[in-house]
Amino acid sequence: MSRDPCARCNHPIASNDRFCPGCGQATTAEQLAHSCPSCTKPVGEGQFCNHCGAKLRVGNATAAIGFQWKWAVLSVPIAIGTMLLFVVFGGIVCAVTGADPQNPAFGLLVLVLGLFTAGLLAGFISPSRTVLEPGVGIAVTLIVMNLLLGDISGAVSGWLIPFAIGALGAAVGEYLQRLRTT
User: Fold this and answer.
1) Which residues contact 67 (CB under 8 A, 6 or more apart)?
2) What is the pLDDT of residue 70?
3) Domain extent at residue 169
């Protein structure tokens, strides 16, 4: 009772095998759920389909798994680090140009550029194809920050626009990621 051969070594795999008897590669449904865009048969993590020979996208194994909380959580330090870099850069620009760092327009510009860049970075490095993860990470960061500062109204409503800016940045990051892998 065989099914498709192992994606790594082409050894026949019985339908009840959890691991390939030839090389030890896991054969769980999660490992085999990724399919070739040409022939739609399950494929492993190689660069070419072992059934039809079609070229697979780099990162094909995680291209269609959807939202993952771990990438939303990893977006939090990316958002914080990027925002800190933009604040420092904004301070340097103010010192060099003599601009007023208390100007609300300047602060808003630093915030928008920082959130967009944080989303872009998280979208670019995230292996999955969803723009929600960086947006959720940024929203969680801002909600927690507002709660720590004692701003309940900001925690309730102050996350929507930054979420949208971060998600837009993530969409651009994922677009750039696709351009790089094709």
Assistant:
1) 128, 130, 132, 133
2) 78
3) 69-181
Question: Token match 């959890």: residue?
Answer: 18
Q: How far apart are CA 163 and CA 10, in angstroms?
A: 45
- 59 and 101 co-located in one domain: no
Q: Two tokens at 96?
A: 């060099």
pLDDT of residue 119: 85
Cα separations in angstroms, 122 against 32, 57, 94, 113, 178: 27, 20, 28, 14, 14
Helix (H, G, I), strand (E, B) or coil at 157: helix
Same domain? 42 vs 121: no
If you ran DSSP here, which 8-state letter would residue 61 be given?
A: G
- The whole-angstrom separation of Cα 94 and Cα 114 is 16
Average pLDDT, the chain: 75
- Supply 128's token pair: 């999955």
* Residue whose tokens read 């996350």: 159
Domain identity same for 94 and 153: yes
Residue environment code for 58-85, b if the CB has 16+ CB neighbours within 10 A, otherwise e: eebbebeeeebeebbebbbebbbebbee
* Segment 98-113, tens digit of pLDDT: 888 788 888 788 888 8
**How far lies 136's CA from each of 51, 62, 149, in Å?**
38, 19, 20
- Of the pLDDT bands very low, low, confident and very high (cuts 50, 70, 90), residue 60 is very low
